[in-house]
Predict the 3D structure of the following.
Amino acid sequence: MQLQDFLSKNPRIAVAYSGGADSSFLLYAAKDAGCDARAYFIKSQFQPGFERDDAVRLAESIGAPLIVGTLDVLGDPRIAQNAADRCYHCKAAILTKIWELARADGYTILCDGTNAEDDEAGRPGMRALRELGVISPLRECGLTKKKIRAMSKQAGLFTHDKPSYSCLATRIPTDTVITGKLLEKIENAENALLDMGFSDFRVRLLPPNGARLQFSAAQWEAAAAGRSELLAALRPGFNDVLLDLTPRLQG
């Protein structure tokens, strides 16, 4: 099935929207096809501020209506305790909130940006999509991340080369309790790296108060050369700062 065929058959959809490359392209494609499409972005403690800013910017650039809701994910102990199934419970909570908002607006179809390369084995949150009846048209139409980025670039979307960004909770080891203070410290550290010009990296917590920095191969040498600046930027929040010698895979 082609994406255009899906959108022709479903001219009125709600989009679970993150502001990343995939959901942004889905929203654009729906608007470009003339659909009545509305985006729903849920702001929780797990999203840094720039993610919301990017989501608003993209939606405004294509003239798509956007609803921003809020959710206290740390109020759910199944999420805050950070067991191995945390992602499932978080995704279920967010999608339940989006369904609540979308149904109040009269939408009966909810789609998300899962693509054809997303593997359910490595993404426990995909179980929540299935259970809550969320449709993934990019996945169903066989669109890969590479294809989505190419089509996004052709459409002039600034998200075409936006690095994939997992939520802040993924920076904290499983079974380490997640707190607002920990999330804020990690977000501040990653914002500092963004201000230094880095773009594809992770600041991972090393309990009790250390940070392990992961950079892509393209930026690893610059990170190593900037040792003093990195320490100055991160030492206020962390006692120990370690640079991972293995570059992280981009995306």
Observations:
- Strands lie at 12-16, 36-43, 66-70, 110-111, 201-206, 210-215, 240-243.
- The chain has a mean pLDDT of 95.
- The longest strand covers residues 36-43.
- The radius of gyration is 19 Å.
